[in-house]
Design goal:
The protein is an alpha/beta fold. It has 9 helices and 13 strands. It folds into 2 domains: 199 residues, 3-Layer(aba) Sandwich (Rossmann fold), CATH 3.40.50; 86 residues, UDP-galactose 4-epimerase, domain 1, CATH 3.90.25. Strand 1, helix 1 and strand 2 form a beta-alpha-beta unit. Bound molecules: uridine-5'-diphosphate (UDP). The site of uridine-5'-diphosphate (UDP) has 16 residues, from helix 5 and strand 8.
Length: 310
């Protein structure tokens, strides 16, 4: 296959590009490098069938030649990033999605949308099943990401129903691993970097809020299983093992052997109180279950940060 990966120089996108090349696909990565970096794909430049195009997909997207699949992963995805880039985030989720759907339609390609657990907002159904419509504050600070992705899902389904485009929608839950930016502000990168530097571990609120963390290799396996399946979705892809943020802080301290102390900071506005995927659909339709436990994934990610920070 010849696959276009938008956001291909990002954290998740770069892992996707690598896995696609490994299985013999050609990859055109498209990225405006706002939150992504060429460093993430530097090791892929020499490989046959890989190219990186610097382009903002919120502007018209042109790719010459045949395309079999378009994977739309371009977007700021860390709360810190999308709060700093609210309008580009809204644009890439709306106009960018429309442009990428247009490309898929034009090429007769399959289209896969990277959606998010944020479409569930601060969920009142727990764990979250795909048929839950969510609890999102449209005018709160996080609305720029949540509503962009909700609109992207609606647009994807409209192209599917009205134009017959072959689509897939994945709802991605908190994912961590190698190539996260040390300064991206997410909880796993913040805690690991703080622990490795012996700095205070910044728990927001009381640390009783929960998240369910999926190691990046597992996440990519699930996404590709969805791409290759006949399942439109949306499908939750995440690790259902749920931890409080305070538990995560203790685990990071254990894994790194750090002497850091936990400090408490104010809880950001509209921070979801709980999040855990119900992955029954992925298990039954895709035969996918995550394999890497949090402690093991954190060890691997810590090793990567050690090398990177050095
Ligand atoms: N968080 C924290 N300390 C940090 C960064 C984040 O306690 O240094 C909390 C944050 O308030 C949230 C959770 O960790 O409850 C996950 O935050 P993240 O930004 O990774 O992603 P989210 O799941 O909120 O999109």
């Amino acid at each position: 296959m010849r696959v276009v990966v938008t956001g291909g120089a990002g954290f998740l996108g770069s892992h996707l590009c690598e896995r696609l090349l490994d299985r013999g696909d050609e990859v055109v990565a498209v990225d405006n490098l706002v939150t992504g970096s060429p460093d993430n794909v530097a090791h892929l430049f020499g490989r046959p069938g890989f190219s990186l195009v610097r382009h903002n997909v919120s502007n018209y997207v042109h790719v010459s030649g045949a395309v079999d699949a378009v994977l739309h992963f371009a977007s700021p995805a860390s709360p810190k990033d999308y709060l700093e880039l609210p309008i580009p985030t809204l644009k890439v989720g709306s106009i960018g999605t429309m442009n990428c759907l247009g490309l898929a339609k034009d090429k007769g390609a399959r289209f896969l949308l990277a959606s998010t657990s944020e479409v569930y907002g601060d969920p009142q159904v727990h764990p979250q099943t795909e048929d839950y419509w969510g609890h999102v504050n449209p005018i709160g600070p996080r609305g720029v990401y949540d509503e962009a992705k909700r609109f992207a899902e609606a647009m994807t389904m409209a192209y599917h129903r009205f134009h017959g485009v072959d689509v897939r929608i994945v709802r991605i839950f908190n994912t961590y691993g190698e190539r996260m930016r040390p300064d991206d502000g997410r909880v796993v990168s913040n805690f690991l970097v703080q622990a490795l530097r012996g700095a205070p571990i910044t728990v927001y609120g009381e640390g009783s809020q929960t998240r369910s963390f999926c190691y990046v290799a597992d996440e990519v396996t699930g996404i590709l299983a969805l791409l290759d399946s006949d399942c439109v979705g949306p499908v939750n892809i995440g690790n259902p093992a749920e931890f409080t943020v305070a538990e995560l802080a203790r685990l990071v301290i254990d894994v790194t052997g750090s002497a850091s102390q936990v400090v408490f900071r104010p809880l950001p506005e509209d921070d979801p109180t709980q999040r855990r995927p119900d992955i029954t659909l992925a298990q039954e339709r895709l035969g996918w279950t995550p394999q890497v436990p949090l402690a093991e994934g954190l060890r691997r990610t810590a090793d990567w940060f050690v090398a990177r920070l050095a």
